[in-house]
Amino acid sequence: MNKYTPLENYLERQHGETLKMTYSEIESILDDNLPKSAYQYSAWWANGEKAHKHSLSWVNAGWKVDEISFGEYIIFTRL
Question: How many helices, marked H, and strands, marked E, lie in the chain?
Answer without folding.
Answer: 3, 3
